[in-house]
Design a protein that fits this description.
Blueprint (H helix, E strand, L loop, with lengths): L2 H26 L2 H6 L2 E11 L5 E12 L2 E12 L2 E10 H15 L1
Antiparallel strand pairs: 1-2, 2-3, 3-4
Length: about 110
Amino acid sequence: MSPLHEELLAWSVMAGVVAYVIARVVRSGGLRAALFNARIVSSEGDLKVDRTVLSSTSFKVLKLTKKGAQLVGLQVSTWLAFSFTTSPVVLTREEARALARLLDQAAE
């Protein structure tokens, strides 16, 4: 394969990835919704924990919908010095209730 073909292939793959991400953002209704691969119905609240001078963690609870199914989203975000990570977790309603029970048991 010639260098020109390799470069064209690399640009084509990059354009495909960018098009996929843009389509997912548009289809989901926003960047955060695209992370969950579902539409965000509402934000139910957030909890900030583990706050120090250089770090912080927060949990955001979201109501989601995907193909008619009602889901619960949990966005876990961590700031540490000069970095940021966010992890989207999608739960069914039953899984969310089971998690709430486990947290309630652990808090007793």
